[in-house]
Amino acid sequence: MRLEQLFSGPTSVTLWGPRGAVQIQHPAPGVLRVRHAPSASDSTFTHPRLPAKQSFAVVGHGGHALTARRNGDTVHVSADGVALALSMESGTWTFHDSEGRLLASSRSVAGEPTPDYPVVRYRSRLALHAPEDEAYLGFGEKVGPLDKRGLRFTFWNTDVMPHHPDTDPLYTSIPFFIGLRQGVAWGLFLDESWRSEVDVALTDPQTIHWESHGPELDCYLIAGPAPADVVKRYVALTGRPPLPPLWSLGAQQSRWGYENEADIRGVIQGYRERDLPLDCVYLDIDYQDGYKVFTFDRARFPDPKGLARDAAQMGVKLVPLVGPAVRAEPGYSVYEQAREKDYVVRFDRGEVLMGEVWPTTVVFPDFSREEVQRWWGSQLQSFSETGIAGIWNDMNEPACFTVRNDPDSFTVQGRRPNGSGRVEGPTLPYDARHGTRRHLEVHNVYALGMGKAVWEGLKQAAPDKRPFILTRAGFAGIQRYAAMWTGDNSSHWTQLESSIPMLLGLGLSGVAFTGVDIPGFVGRANGELLVRWMQAGMFYPLMRNHSAKGTPRKEPWRFGEPYLTLARETLRRRYRLLPALYSLMQEATETGLPVMRPLSMHAPAEGDALRAYDQFLFGPDLLVAPIVRPGHSRRLAYLPAGKWLSFPNLDRPGQVHDGGGYVIAEGPLDTVPVWLRAGGAVPFTQPALHTTDANWKALTWHIHAAAQVTGRLYEDEGEGHGDFRLTRLSGGLDGDTFRLERRAEGTLPLAREGEVIRIHGLAAAKSVTGARSHRAVDGALELEVGAGWDRIEVRL
User: Fold this and answer.
1) Could you confirm whether 394 is annotated as catalytic?
2) Of 488, 555, 715, 716, which residue is the catalytic one?
3) Among 44, 332, 355, 535, which is disulfide-ready with 672 (CB 3.0 to 4.6 Å)?
4) Domain 680-795 adopts which CATH fold?
5) pLDDT digits (tens, 9 = 90+) for 45-103
6) Chain segment 317-330, per-residue pLDDT in tens
7) What is the residue extent of each domain of the chain?
8) What count of other Cβ atoms lies within 10 Å of the Cβ of residue 210?
9) Which listed residue (279, 397, 441, 497) is catalytic?
């Protein structure tokens, strides 16, 4: 792509040639936007000026100052923390950070349109140099190990049931990755909603090839140097997640097959009779009247308000499934409104597109338009009055089993136009019309628009509560509206193991609130798989048991003993962990950092940390290595540099291990291997049958003594927008003295009279000041302090 002209302004640089153009902007510190339009002369009416672009994903559009200078064939652009050198001859570039390190370089940029009917076909291609020692992480919801080098992916949201460890594409498309080499990270986000494909150094081991079906390649280049820095900057661009209600972090139960009100009441009673914690039950499609969204079948669910009220009295919230497909039934108000207001997707020839999902004939709202989003959200006003607590967005790729009224008789010169009516997967045709756009462009953001619609609708319907939405599909930025689960998995051990890198990839791609169906949606699980999956799921942000109609029931008691007892113990540990989990979720709202983190996020220079794809960090301080193979009672685990206290099940402190190497972890069926980082401080509470609020009545800090100790606790009402309190601990060992300070901000009154601080690594003390009492417990020093304590000093 030869460039001949240059225009430099205070906030953007534009270069153009006979066919293509490049625009460079600086949206945020450490970030450059390089908007390639390799076929601008054909794809726009304003070449060389690029038209304004609506981004579905990016919310941080701010234009910051940059400088540009030309030196012969090369244009040098510099900004806060980043620099770019671009060749006028080829349109290729190199990307550097503030230290002058070369982070990335492009090898070629190309694109050409192919005139066709009904739409022009575009192929825009970008090639990036892939150094042989560089790893590539992220890419959203994708299969494979943590490092995706040597794999190829398609970004086209697809309804797959069931999916397998090598299935691609899946339900969500997030075209973002992190490059990691010699401990230094950088990121690339391709802000294109069009269908695209990426070859991650598979065909050519030295090159990443990315091809989009759109006319542009809009790239955001993000500097590190740490992986966490890249994630923070990416999430600042695409939107930070909101704080979810506390109850959504409790145990959840679902099944496609709870067919009536008695089933819902029965499963809640089944949990309570067996002393199993539970906070949420989902209503799958069987609750609907003829599969019509926003309705209840009054024969099977005669009293939705009463059901929600009775469930709430037992501490359980109800979350119904809502799909985007609207039954085309005359007299049905949602359908009549959509048709009257012209809010639906159409064929290229203008007919309303009708498909088949659960109803035999449906229409699809056009969620690419804001007026349609507002209309859809308004439907939630009366629906929420039944007492439902959240919404489960499903089938929102969008899934369409069959296009029913395809006008396939239309021909041009005796043949059907190339691409007319083409469908990839169970969805809508490429050329379907969404207002002024084609489905090929907006397919991947369909669920994003629906998520926004439901989020805004729930806020309006219940302004005093935080919305909760669970979604199957999404695009970059979906974290602004919804939690995400990985879709219709199977009850296989390989899926338990593969769930970890899938969730880590989503977390690295900005989606902090994630989960996986436990113990697999389809197929047959046994008791061992249930327990092992629950032990891993104890640390998933979203912990949901789910299963499919036509498969054995998978509620914890279905597997008998000893599995029921082990499941109960695991759920109780989950509820003990809620102060730490809730605090990490609140941290995500400020930084974008996920709850589940790959070891390489905090140990980027350690190659073995990168390869430990079946382990993860829960926040910065807990390392979890679940047993993910059948019949195994021990496993090899990698511990990054530092010291780690063996802390299996969060309640059995053992020996301290030196990091930077491997250990053999014991993991009998009742145990999940966990370690506490030296210097880490993690808050726990007492187990309960359900959540109430996040102003903890009982609190115990577990601290692994080191020279530097840090801890963090966020508390509030658990739902709503009232007062809060953020507590930070700091201190550490200094010779023969251990000091700890507590600082708090916020106005939330304390709900407890005291706290317990258990310091691992200290067993005996000559004296303690600032505590009510102290004693030795399980090789640790346990202190009882008043709720308002501010400083503790231990003489050893």
Assistant:
1) yes
2) 488
3) 535
4) Immunoglobulin-like (2.60.40)
5) 989 889 999 899 999 767 899 999 999 999 999 999 999 999 999 999 999 999 999 99
6) 999 999 999 999 99
7) 5-130+184-224, 680-795
8) 23
9) 397
